[in-house]
C-alpha cells in the first residue's frame, strides 16, 4: 500500500480551479488513515519539544499564542506529508508558473485558549511564500471546540473553515486570515510553498 495519497485528476483540477478563482481550496481525506495515525503519533510524541511561536527574527508577538516544532529529516513521517506537497507544488507551478522550489513546514499545536490573530503569511510580497497549507491531524474535532481558520478569499469574501481531521487547506500566502480561539488541543502541519531554495530546519 502506498504511504501517501495520490491526487485523482478531478480533485487536482478542482484544486487548481479553486485556487485560480478564489485563492484557496480544500482537500478532505488527504492521507490513508494509517499514515494519518502515524503523523498524529509522531506529532504527539514530540510535544515536549514544541516552543512558543515567533513572528519574525525570533521575536514573540502577542498576536499569536500557538506552539510549533519545525520539521526536518529527524521527523520521517512528516516528510511523507511534505512529499505530497512537493507533488502538488509541481502541478501548481505547471498551472500558474509560480516558481515554487521549496517547502518550509512545522508541526503546530494550539492548546486550549490559544489563537492567531488576523495576518498575512506574505504581506506585500515581503517574503518568498506563495501558497500556505494547513493539514489537520488531530484524531477528531467538534464544532464547539473552535480553532477554525477564518479566511478572506481573493474576491474579498470571508470563509470559516473547520479543522476537520485529515483535511488540507491551501491558500495564497498574501490572503488575510486568522485562527479563531481554540477550546481544545488542535494539531496541524503548517507548510509554505516557497520560491527560494533555502534549506529549512528546526
TrEMBL record:
Q: Which residues form the Fe2OG dioxygenase domain?
A: 101-195
Q: Which domain of life is it from?
A: Bacteria
Q: Which SMART domains match?
A: P4Hc
Which first-to-last residue range defines the signal peptide? none
- Quick one: a GO biological-process term for this protein? cellular response to hypoxia
Enumerate the InterPro entries for this protein. Answer: HIF_prolyl_hydroxylases (IPR051559), Oxoglu/Fe-dep_dioxygenase_dom (IPR005123), Pro_4_hyd_alph (IPR006620), Pro_4_hyd_alph_FE2OG_OXY (IPR044862)
An example Gene Ontology molecular-function term: ferrous iron binding
Name this protein carries in UniProt: Fe2OG dioxygenase domain-containing protein
Q: Which organism is it from?
A: Acinetobacter baylyi (strain ATCC 33305 / BD413 / ADP1)
Q: What is the lineage of its organism?
A: Bacteria, Pseudomonadati, Pseudomonadota, Gammaproteobacteria, Moraxellales
Amino acid at each position: 500500500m502506498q504511504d501517501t495519497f495520490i491526487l485523482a485528476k478531478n480533485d487536482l483540477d478542482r484544486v487548481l480551479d479553486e485556487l485560480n478563482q478564489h485563492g484557496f481550496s480544500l482537500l478532505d481525506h488527504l492521507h490513508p488513515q494509517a499514515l494519518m495515525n502515524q503523523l498524529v503519533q509522531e506529532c504527539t510524541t514530540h510535544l515536549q519539544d514544541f516552543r512558543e511561536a515567533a513572528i519574525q527574527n525570533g521575536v514573540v508577538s502577542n498576536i499569536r499564542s500557538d506552539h510549533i516544532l519545525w520539521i526536518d529529516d529527524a521527523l520521517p513521517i512528516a516528510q511523507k506529508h511534505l512529499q505530497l506537497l512537493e507533488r502538488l507544488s509541481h502541478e501548481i507551478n505547471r498551472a500558474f508558473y509560480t516558481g515554487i522550489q521549496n517547502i518550509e513546514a512545522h508541526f503546530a499545536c494550539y492548546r486550549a485558549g490559544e489563537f492567531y490573530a488576523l495576518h498575512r503569511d506574505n504581506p506585500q510580497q515581503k517574503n518568498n511564500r506563495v501558497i500556505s497549507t494547513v493539514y489537520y491531524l488531530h484524531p477528531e474535532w467538534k464544532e464547539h471546540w473552535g480553532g477554525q481558520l477564518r479566511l478572506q478569499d481573493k474576491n474579498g469574501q470571508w470563509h470559516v473553515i473547520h479543522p476537520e481531521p485529515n483535511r488540507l487547506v491551501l491558500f495564497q500566502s498574501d490572503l488575510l486570515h486568522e485562527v479563531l480561539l481554540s477550546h481544545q488541543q488542535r494539531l496541524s502541519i503548517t507548510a509554505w510553498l516557497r520560491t527560494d531554495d533555502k534549506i529549512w530546519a528546526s
